[in-house]
Description:
The protein is α/β, with parallel strands linked by helices. It has one domain: Rossmann fold (3-Layer(aba) Sandwich), CATH 3.40.50. The chain is built from seven helices and five strands; from the N terminus they run βααβααβααβαβ. It has helices spanning 6-13, 17-28, 37-49, 53-64, 73-88, 95-106, 117-120, and strands at residues 2-4, 33-35, 67-68, 111-113, 127-129.
Amino acid sequence: MVCLDSDFLIAFLRGNPEAERKILQLKQSGERLTITPISATELYFGAIKADRTDGIEKTKLFLSMLELLEFDLAAAEKTGEVIATLEKKGQRIGDKDELTAGIALRHCENTIITRNKKHFEKIPGIKVEKW
Length: 131
């Protein structure tokens, strides 16, 4: 199971060949593809902001093919741990990435597919897979 970060998802929706190859590779290997509510929100925001119906529909269709990790109380606790750990080191990375990491870790999803290695590699327990 891998968690797909927003930068990867946006690249895929924009037709980036590297992102398309990575999705194909992950699907062929039988990986469960997951996302967080944070990433889903970012995709909808982009589609709605662009004010194109086809973009919104494309986003809905794409997201329906992925497993949404729940943001529950256990995820809130895990996110609180992530934020506290980073803050103690003076290395906060931003609310969205901290939430994404906390939700992923709560669901025992330690691998995040992203190009944002700089942020996610600061979080204990997270494995970053660049695409």
